[in-house]
Amino acid sequence: MDSDDLEHVIRHGLIGTKFEPVHDNVTGSPAGYVVTPFRRDIDDCDSDRLRESIQQSDHTGDYDSSIRGIALRDAENAGITQNTRLFFSAEPESLVTLEERPDSQARSMILKLDHTSVRDNPAAVLRSIRSARQMGWGIGIRNVGLDLESLSFIPLINPSIVGLHPDVLRIEDRAYLSKLTWLLQSHIERTSGVIFARGVRDERDVDLAEQMGVRLISGPFFGPGTETPEPLEMAAEDYLADHYTRNKQVQGTPYSISQSLGRDPLITAQDLLLEEIRSLLERAKHAGPSAVVVVVHSSDECLDPTIGDLVRSIAPEVGVLASVSGESVATTLPNIMTGPLDSSDPLRNEYGVVVVSSDWSAMITAHRLARPGAERRTDFETYFTTDRFACVDGARAVLSRLASRRNV
């Protein structure tokens, strides 16, 4: 379906909405509805194909916003109130069109972004997510779990809902499922978020979902989608009440974020700083495919060539690797997320590494001193931290500057 077809379908009222029931696996009660748009004029055009057409169009944001508006009107016409939580698939391009929701309806509407969308344009998406939350919309992530790399942006987004890809319940590899469960539970323990599994077909799927700590489930086992959903009663327990979004605007750089922790920096010689950076990069290499690694260096003048080789060797081993530099060379590195820095950006004067993984985080960041040290050596003010929030903020501070996707 091309862009003209999509516009025709939307303008002529050929988009309908089905509401797929969601079941709370803990309380055993209804937990809301998954909103699934469909074409009224074609029987075999399911919501996944319609979503794919939206993503491939030149007006993704406009079409996604229009379809969401249709669904909201359909929900209102069906008598759905803020007591009934709705789950929408959403594209980041449409977040700029969101309208503010009253406090009484905060987080009753969850927008689930595909896990690949942040990696395609981290700066714009991270800003849009914060804005959407400020206006009373909940943020989730969808289609994770087929590989561990798909979970890498979860600490940076901090979604209230982590939606598994439907095919995760078809996976037979128990070793892989154990790793996936470990990563999911790490997020749940830290943030009180909720795991959501779609496509549940039978008791076997329900059993596997329970073993993985999934709370919300939907699929054929709980009934098909309907155009006439029933409003739900106020739940005795809000499964998202304890989720902590920490919707903080990240300002500054990894260095200034480390300064805000209130600790005194160490005065470090250049050769020792390079070894400390190398040491953290070696640890990061084994952090796993769900890890985020950010490398910052002012110029190659102070960067040992072997460290550059180490950075390149990390790319296939971790989920996200970003490298920014005051020089243009960083933008030529393959398989690494990069982007140009403004000439006045204070990040151009920093060195460091930030690692955010499922079970540990670490950051080293340094700023060259203007005065020479003993024996006229080059000295740096250096901060070390394993504070989880500081490391997440440091990674977001760098990624929010990057408008381009990874190089290939």
UniProtKB/TrEMBL annotation:
Name a Pfam family for this protein.
EAL
Sorted alphabetically, which SUPFAM superfamilies does this protein's record hold? EAL domain-like (SSF141868)
Which domain of life, per UniProt?
Bacteria
Q: Which residues form the EAL domain?
A: 5-224
Recorded protein name is: EAL domain-containing protein
**Origin organism of this chain?**
Brevibacterium mcbrellneri ATCC 49030
